[in-house]
Amino acid sequence: MTASPSIPRTELHAAAERFGTPLYVYDAAELDAALARVRAAFGQARVFYAMKANPNLTLLTRLRVAGVGFECVSAGEIARAEHVGAGGESILVNGPAKSGEEYAAGGRLGATFVVDREEEAGLLPPDSRALVRVNPALNVSTHDHLATGAAGSKFGVTIEQAPGVLRALRDAGHTALGLHVHIGSAIRDAGDFGLAFARLAELRAHTGELEVLDVGGGWGLDADLPGIAREAHAAASVFGASLWVEPGRYLVARAGTLLTRVVGTKRTGRNFLLTDAGMTELLRPMLYGAVHPVTPLWDGAGGETWDVAGPACESGDLLARDVVLPVPSPGDLLAVGDAGAYGAAMSGTYLTRPRPAEALWEDGAWRLIRRRETAQEVWAAEV
Ligand SMILES: Cc1ncc(COP(=O)(O)O)c(C=O)c1O
């Protein structure tokens, strides 16, 4: 496993030196390649990037220029989409508990809403375009916290409710474009998608033809995209619908690497390799037990088994467990891979730790795309 497929090691060292660590770096070529893979698999489907995965304005701009729209779940995300020049046609407003702010911002821009409960027919701005999110009631192969299509989850309406919600939208004067499904994130078994799409297709008898079928995102990084796309197109054709997709992690995860310096080591029965990044920079290992590849950027023979632990006062503050790495020296650089999605986006300021800088590797040069915060900025809103 390599943490950063195409950025030369010397350049990773140079970036850490220039911008400091912890540091997120992104490879523009890998971002473009991921989008190309999505387009090759899904053909004419409209792509709405789920910006929750990584909302950095430079990455959003790159995707917008490439013709990608945005799936947004907060007024802040809608403002980001507007800031990078996206118009209403390219914005989807999603979320199980939208506030007045989201309805107002989406309505002002003419965005499409993804309705998550029947009452929303009465809450949308007048003459809205809307999809109905359906919960297919499936147990899917991912961490419980990442599963969004299981029976009893808070997302969407039930299969039985969906035709009635489409009718309620039309009765309220909105344009009910079609159906939406998103079964979760980091899904390991691609077969889960086929099952979910097939459940929606069964609704055809009750809904008639529809304009749009939106099958969300959630694809694993090694997923068989052509296979998922075939199932999605098959379901869309049942409705005579155009296909929309909402990838987040798939588009940006591989492009991103978290660079962290070794602070030291400690042996307490387990071997700890202590780093200057941890849960405040990359929460996924702690939150979901996510496994990220780690690559040592120092020379050394042999290896020992380490837990890579961050600086927070939390026992769960681990970036990796049981990884074999050569013995490091303080200051050595470790690369944590597949970190472009839900990495910087979920970074926090717990312990008044300023959020890290982000840099883009593009055409053989580094560009700072977010500077490191200062401690003063962390407390700036306090009175
Ligand atoms: C509605 C919706 N669409 C798309 C996504 C993107 O998922 P992923 O990043 O796993 O592709 C999410 C993630 O939570 C989501 O909730």
- The number of helical segments is 12
Encode the helix/strand succession as letters. Answer: HEHEHEHEHEEEHEHHEHEHEEHEEEEEEH
Query: Structural class of the secondary structure composition?
Result: alpha/beta
The percent range for strand residues is 15-25%
For the record, the CATH class of the largest domain is Alpha Beta
CATH T-level fold name of the largest domain: TIM Barrel
**Low-confidence parts lasting 5 or more residues at pLDDT below 50?**
none
Instruction: State the total count of DSSP E strands.
Output: 18
Q: What summary fits the major beta sheet?
A: 9 strands, mixed
Overall CATH architecture of the largest domain:
Alpha-Beta Barrel
SSE blueprint and pairings:
Layout: H1 9-19, E1 23-27, H2 28-42, E2 46-50, H3 57-65, E3 69-72, H4 75-83, E4 91-93, H5 100-109, E5 112-115, E6 129-135, E7 157-158, H6 162-171, E8 175-180, H7 191-201, H8 204-207, E9 212-214, H9 225-239, E10 242-245, H10 249-252, E11 256-267, E12 271-275, H11 284-288, E13 294-296, E14 304-309, E15 318-325, E16 333-336, E17 357-362, E18 365-370, H12 375-378
Parallel strand pairs: 1-17, 2-3, 2-10, 3-4, 4-5, 5-6, 6-7, 6-8, 8-9, 9-10, 12-14
Antiparallel strand pairs: 1-11, 11-12, 11-16, 13-16, 14-15, 17-18
The structure holds pyridoxal-5'-phosphate.
The site of pyridoxal-5'-phosphate has 18 residues, from helix 10.
Organism: Deinococcus aetherius
Catalytic activity: meso-2,6-diaminopimelate + H(+) = L-lysine + CO2
EC number: 4.1.1.20
